[in-house]
Structure prediction request, 347 residues.
Amino acid sequence: MWDTWHKQSSIHLIAIGSVVGLMKKVFQDAKEPLYGRLTREIDLSPLPIEAIYQIATDLGFQSPTDILTLYGIFGGMPRYYEIIESMGLGGSTIRQILHQALFSPFAPFRNEMRDIILSEFGGTAHTYLAILEAIATGKTRRSEIAGPAGLPATSLSKYLRELSDLFDLIEREVPITEQSWKTKKSRYKIRDPFITFWMRFIYRQLSIYESGNFPYFLNRLNTCVAEFMGFAFENITRELLLKLNLHNRAPFYFHRIGRWWDRQSEIDLVALNSETRQTLFVECKWTSTPVGTDVLQTLKHRAQNLPTANAFYLITSKSGFTDTLKNLRDPHLYLWDPNDIATFLKK
Prediction:
């Protein structure tokens, strides 16, 4: 009936769902009755960092470092910030938020990941969870993932493809200088930061978590958050650079941005303009001490692996920079701390 009359009717049928795998299956699987009947698909992405910065400010958070940490852990999902507000945790420390929202008997986030995973995977969750745990804990190459997942490397492709294409939970990365369709130098990462956090610090100790032994996690919380933000800060810097590039406010306009690595070393981010041959080399440091000239020298040394006509350098640092580094008068060097990032996000 719909196929016959929908063009003559004024009815618009809108299907909305948060279970990504199910929505794709319903409309994209040739075996399903609604296959081929989709007029338009809208993929709602998480809110961008500038929107979350404004939300966090409205909730009473003032420290740029705290707001970046919030975003680093919870990402751009509005629901999480709504829960933080409903619990009266606006303006609280990161430790207080995680304690009340994740590490307490009636914490609203306590079953969040379990519910998401069961709704997506159902009874086949074990293998997918093993893969996600491996990626979250730093085993990002195929050869590293297969062992913890209990799979031969030849059987891994199916699960990686489903996690990427069907469930939108992971993405494949290749060095910025490589062609994705051509190279085998690939790594995988989880798209959602809160899933990464949960898999990294809770799932691997799930029996302790489910027993209610929350002091076990709280005693390690500061170290866990600092360790996690070391990775998350790179994603934040990348998103900020993309935002600035869109408005022609980056150090120069670039065409591509991504990580780079070879067998000996790696660079957090590299941004390239293939026409002008300008290259921006980026190092992201979430440490408790100011960054010094040694970090810049290491970055420059690694950058020699990527010949460029015009090199620029950017270091982002949670704890700022030493006077020696700040006093370098190099027009090709950019130093950003959380206050600088906050300034960019307010504009």
Q: What stands out?
A: The beta strands are 170-173, 187-190, 256-261, 266-273, 278-285, 310-317, 333-336.
